[in-house]
Amino acid sequence: MLFIGDSFDFEFITTASNPVRCALGKQFCVLLFSDNTAVYRRTAHHVCFVVPVHYPSFVRSTLKPRDLSLKESVDHLFKFKTAEDRSRFSTYVSSLTNVDFKIIKELGPPRKAPKKNKTSQWP
User: Fold this and answer.
1) DSSP code of 114?
2) Neighbours of 89 (CB within 10 A)
3) Fewest CB within 10 A of the end CB: N or C in the chain?
4) How do strand 2-5 and strand 8-14 relate by DSSP bridges?
5) Residue ranges of the alpha helices (H) in the chain?
6) Regarding beta strands 43-52 and 2-5, do their DSSP bridges make them parallel or antiparallel, or are they unpaired?
7) Each residue's pLDDT tens digit in the chain (123 positions)?
């Protein structure tokens, strides 16, 4: 796997039915996997983009209820591989000073498919 973007120390997933893979390095990131492949040192690799995301905005966009505190979101929203990873992430969340947020629409619930046009020629 080739990771494009920031480096990170460890990764973890959300507890959602369709989990989102996340990572923590200097900041919180979402791992976006693609269908792209790249050749690196004569070997083909799948490509994953490491995208930094504002953590309070991520939490407020994905959690229901939205009034859950950021500290509580650590256990409510994520599964960690080790207790040490959980502790390090909790420390990161506690150190955040910019807790203002904006809803990230792309992280919200899936939207309903548009209704079919009844006058369409296609079945």
Assistant:
1) P
2) 20
3) C
4) unpaired
5) 55-62, 70-77, 83-94
6) parallel
7) 788 888 899 999 998 888 899 999 999 999 998 888 878 888 888 889 999 999 999 998 887 666 778 888 898 899 999 999 999 999 999 999 888 888 887 776 544 444 555 554 545
Write out the DSSP string of the chain: -EEEES-EEEEEEESSSS--EEEEESSEEEEEEEEEEEEETTEEEEEEEEEE--HHHHHHHH-SSTTS-HHHHHHHHEE-SSHHHHHHHHHHHHT---------GGGSPPPPPPPPPTT-S--
Q: How far is CA 56 from the centre of its chain?
A: 12
Q: Which residue has the tokens 């994905």?
A: 62
CA angle 13–17–21, rounded 5-degree value: 20
What integer pLDDT is reported at residue 109 of this predicted model? Answer: 58
